[in-house]
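Today's session is about reading a structure prediction critically. Students often jump straight to the picture, but the first step is always the sequence itself: look for stretches that repeat, for charged clusters, for runs of hydrophobic residues. Only then move on to the predicted structure, which in these notes is written as discrete structure tokens rather than atom positions. Here is the chain we will use throughout the hour.
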Amino acid sequence: MFGGVKVKCCIVGDFNVGKTSILHSYLDKSAKDVATTVGIDFFSKTVSVGERSVYMTLWDTAGAERFHSLIHSYLRDMDLAILVYDTSKRHSNIVFWMRCIEQYRPKVIGVIGNKSDLTHVNVDNMDDLLFPWKRQSKVILHETLSARNPEKVKSFFKRCLQVIVADKPANSDMRYVQLEPRMPESRKCCT
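Below is the predicted structure for this chain, in token form.
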């Protein structure tokens, strides 16, 4: 049994925004010529965050609309949601994906503006877009980067994991709880 912290991470976003490229960059795989995800892909990685060991399960979801019905069953019990959008395109469904994510109450929501090495066409004000969720005390981290820069990708994931690890107690994987019987207080009536 793994003695560290277990984190379930799901990566969501529209079709062709670079979700798989971000994931490949994080896993030290080539982010070039990445094939389109069909359905769901699964990866795992163990990393160190501070003095804690973190075992991550990474779920790469397909962004095509025909796969949206599959995604909901994989988002359950996630600790970290990574929403990826394309900074080189005008239209991004950030509000749609945030509404989808919020149902599952992840501890941290990471929002990545991918393809920063290309022209910035997406001029959405992220503070305004994310305000309704930040107002609800959701932990949301945002960064604009490129999947071609693995160090920035790893740094962003590490920031997200630091928040989760700080929130989890050392024995977060304990499966059994032993309850100690509590003796009832002696009560005296009419003394």
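Discussion point for the tutorial: The mean pLDDT is 82.
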